[in-house]
Amino acid sequence: MSSDVFNSCNLPINDQACISLGHGSGGKLSSNLINEFFLPYLGNEILNELEDASVVTLNQDNIAVSIDSFVVNPIFFPGGNIGSLSVHGTINDLAVRGAKPLFIAASFIMEEGFLLEDLTKIIQAMQLACRQNNVKLITADTKVVNKGDCDKIFITTSGIGLVTANDIPSVSKAKVNNNILVSGDIGRHGMAIMATREEFELESTIESDSASLYSLINLILASDIQVNCLRDITRGGLATVLNEIAMASGIGIVIDESQIPIQTNVAALGEILGIDPLYIACEGRFVAVVDEIRAQDLLAIMHSHPLGTNAAIIGKVVDDPDNNVIAKTIIGGSRLVDTLLFDELPRIC
Amino acid sequence: MSSDVFNSCNLPINDQACISLGHGSGGKLSSNLINEFFLPYLGNEILNELEDASVVTLNQDNIAVSIDSFVVNPIFFPGGNIGSLSVHGTINDLAVRGAKPLFIAASFIMEEGFLLEDLTKIIQAMQLACRQNNVKLITADTKVVNKGDCDKIFITTSGIGLVTANDIPSVSKAKVNNNILVSGDIGRHGMAIMATREEFELESTIESDSASLYSLINLILASDIQVNCLRDITRGGLATVLNEIAMASGIGIVIDESQIPIQTNVAALGEILGIDPLYIACEGRFVAVVDEIRAQDLLAIMHSHPLGTNAAIIGKVVDDPDNNVIAKTIIGGSRLVDTLLFDELPRIC
User: Fold this and answer.
1) Contact B21/A146, CB-based, under 8 Å?
2) CB A167: neighbour CB atoms within 10 A?
3) Helix, strand, coil percent content, chain A, rounded in steps of 5
4) Domain residue spans of chain B
């Protein structure tokens, strides 16, 4: 499988070259797909930045715009469902660009035979998430496809936020000696999804961390601390976000594994499944990069908020022309935390 | 089938109540789904207007926002593909609200095994459609699902346009004695899709009318003619748009069938398949409602543009508390042009 996947992405286009699950993993294959197929045709100075949300100027206002499709399987999971996830994910993409989330557009692709009772639960979860965050759903679309042409329901949400920050956090603004912070324990969303998948038949108490990060991020942006990068941790996990920051900012990152907050049950399930939690998706956690002299102040703000109680300083930015992310391991060594070529866990979000 | 579909929408929610193909048809079942499931939870003064794009005010600027998922089958058809269709559809939704289309966000859900060669053609078509209309794709997402979890590729596009018009055309602004115009011959998109479906095994020369309407609409908006309603004709066809206008404006509409432009091959295929072209989707046509004294001027502007050469005045707005749409037939009678409960043609767009 591994070499097929590799070939499908790197061969010249021919009849054999096709989309693989790895292309959706958030790893290197996803990145290749974007760089080799999307950007050559659709790229421009805004899209090419590959931010969680793009910031554009209208006549007067600066807005942030995001879009994400949610195809999570199962659609109901401990800690949320595809509806709450779609609203949280969109709010988070806007918030990390320093934008106040205002409006959401949502499109629903549903399979013939999908239960209206389940649809209702999903819509109610979206309603709650919108209300809690003072966000309005302003336009929507529904499509129905024949039985077997999609799996239950896919939701695509596009968010619009107003940018008021003068200096917008960006994946490309990390500077040498900046500190790296994570807002809470990692890997819960992905592990919660995996634990509910039938093929694993696991009993687990892990709940998804799916949450809106806006109130916490707003607290940070309202302070006098200049945060250089903010990025929410989704597909590909903490490891992927750190690599994206290293690449975009042209720096290296060194993290201390012993400082990374991970729930015991998440670490234990990771051991059982043989999966490194650094690569597991979150849906309510972010990475912040800040000048080292303000790192403790930033940590104090995070700790003051319910979503940041487990926040920690986990490493720092270093000068490295190879843009590597290196982890100091708990047993005293060090290892390269590379972006995965692909992972085998589709439909995590 | 018909009564099952009906039951699935009107029964109290129980285990039998499920999404049917009719819920995606653009007809009455679609409307019921929106009114009974979406609006009670997610409704607000903006969403409730059910416009093609919603207009909201930021700090300073008025923007129009649209979202649509495209699940058309087949993905390549005479006159376009799912990529060009997704850009045209989004531009048209913005244009009919008097907005200048500026930005598009796009999300791609792809099936494992989907050919990269096909993806490339689709992306190239999006590139061309964006360039021709001076629209930028500013943010995107890609998701991959397992083989069999979706059919090839679904594209969701959200559009953002800047509204400069003072008096924004709206589905609710038709007034008694206004004239109804259609911008060109109807039904080509839906008939082109149906003719290519394997189950019909038809040979046809019909090409989709998929096109960006912005340049034609811009010509109209730049004139001194105040257009009350503009609505592009998509799922459910001309009949559905006219019923939406009648309902939202609280008026009735009388159209003259002999004045409705329809290509001979579209009418002929309609006869063969037993489908009324009034209910067939277009993707490059719109309805305009205007004061009767300016109808000829508006028609002249339409005729001056390549996309409006077949434009025609097809009827007028009348006082009718029942908000009926009535067609004077070619043989001299009249018939009620109701919204269909559902049609059996999924995945037309």
Assistant:
1) yes
2) 10
3) 35, 25, 40
4) 1-43, 52-163, 178-336
Q: How many CA atoms lie within 13 A of A49 on its CB side?
A: 19
Q: Do B20 and A112 touch (CB under 8 A)?
A: yes
Decide if the complex's ipTM is over 0.90: yes
Measured between CA atoms, the residue of chain B closest to residue A36 is B120
Q: Do B14 and A46 touch (CB under 8 A)?
A: no
For chain A, first and last CA: distance in Å?
Answer: 23
**Rounded to 5 degrees, what angle do the CA atoms A160, B39, B93 make?**
50
**Whole-prediction pTM value?**
0.94
Measured on CA atoms in the order B18, B21, B26, B28, is the torsion positive or negative? Answer: negative
Residues of B in contact with A45 (CB under 8 A): none
How many angstroms from the chain centroid is the CA of residue A272? 24
Sign of CA dihedral A167, A173, A177, A183: positive
A200-214 in b/e form (b: 16+ CB < 10 A) is: eeeebebbbbbbbbb
Q: Is A231 left (phi over 0), alpha (psi -120 to 50) or beta?
A: beta
Candidates A212, A208, A289, A286; CA nearest to A248 is A289
| pLDDT digit string (tens) for chain B, length 349 residues | 233 333 343 444 444 589 998 898 888 888 899 999 999 999 999 999 999 999 999 988 999 999 999 999 999 999 999 999 999 999 999 999 999 999 999 999 999 999 999 999 999 999 999 999 999 999 999 999 999 999 999 999 999 999 987 789 999 999 999 999 999 999 999 999 998 886 666 677 899 999 999 999 999 999 999 999 999 999 999 999 999 999 999 999 999 999 999 999 999 999 988 889 999 999 999 999 999 999 999 999 999 999 999 999 999 999 999 999 999 998 999 999 998 877 667 899 9
The residue among B204, B230, B107 whose CA lies nearest residue B159 is B107
B106 contacts on A by Cβ (under 8 Å):
67
Query: Which residues lie below 8 Å from residue B312, measured CB to CB, with a gap of 6+?
Result: B181, B182, B259, B260, B261, B299
Total beta-carbon pairs less than 8 A apart between chain A and chain B = 293
Tokens 């998701």 found at = B143
- Which residues in chain A show pLDDT less than 70? 1-16, 198-202, 343-344
Distance CA A142, CA B115 (A): 26
Superfamily name with CATH number, domain B52-163:
PurM-like, N-terminal domain (3.30.1330.10)
- The SS3 of residue A42 is helix
Q: What is the DSSP string of A161-179?
A: EEE--SS---TT---TT-E
**CB of A90 closer than 8 Å to CB of A123:** no
Nearest CA in chain B to A30: B142
Q: Which of residues 30-49 of A touch B (CB under 8 A)?
A: 30, 33-34, 37-38, 41-42, 44, 46-47
Amino acid letter, residue B348: I
Q: Shortest CB distance from B60 goes to which of A38, A60, A103? A: A60
Whole-angstrom distance, CA of residue A286 vs CA of residue A90: 14
**Fold (CATH) for A178-336:** Phosphoribosyl-aminoimidazole Synthetase; Chain A, domain 2 (3.90.650)
User: What strands, in cross-sheet order, belong to the sheet with B54-57?
Assistant: B54-57, B62-70, B153-163, B99-111, B136-145
Determine contact: A146 vs chain B, CB below 8 A: yes
